[in-house]
Amino acid sequence: MNKMIKLISAAVVVLCISAFTVAKTTLSEGYKIGDVAEDFSLKNIDGKMVSLADYKNAKGFIITFTCNTCPFAVAYEDRIIALDKKYASKGYPVIAIMPNNVSVKPDDNLDAMKQRANEKGFTFPYLIDKEQNVFPKFGATKTPHMFVLQKTKKGHVVKYIGAIDDNYKDAASVSTKYVEKAVDALLQGQEVEQTETKAIGCGIKV
Q1: Using 50, 70 and 90 to split pLDDT, how confident is the model at 151?
Q2: pTM for the whole structure
Q3: Which of 9, 77, 127, 190 reaches 20 to 30 Å from 19, CA-CA?
Q4: For the residues of 129-145, what is the DSSP string, one character each?
């Protein structure tokens, strides 16, 4: 009996280590610059499902993984709203995705998302990655974490990954607007000069 218990315990340990390894690998991998991002279908705060394919006239997308509870994400909300107001009409709308496990962060649940979007006047979809299947594909690790995609014949090509700008503390003190520079370059038919920066924010809760 003791031998059997030891064998079962050893098996459980191996399974736990394997699961941790898989989770760690999944979270550390994701799209690289030049990769084609898969489309997704996620629930919006209005209850409707949203996909990239819904945007027939889009030239690309500004994807942000964000949430209600991270102070970094909250600090950037007005700047994300400004990005959508500036670029949606030019073909680069914002799509916000909430990636956190709501069992870990209850204040990031769908009802709380609706309330926050209404309070701030979000002009863009605010989607929930309920099954947490989308953010690992992107390789998102923070809230906020930005991805600029360009629609091409090949599909939605990743052109920029990282932070919104270089000063999360104070919008007035920003010297380099990474996302804006990336989208401006694409609109002008140019290559993005700075394709990657370090995302600053809270770790995504799994």
Answers
A1: very high
A2: 0.86
A3: 127
A4: -TTS-HHHHHT--EESE
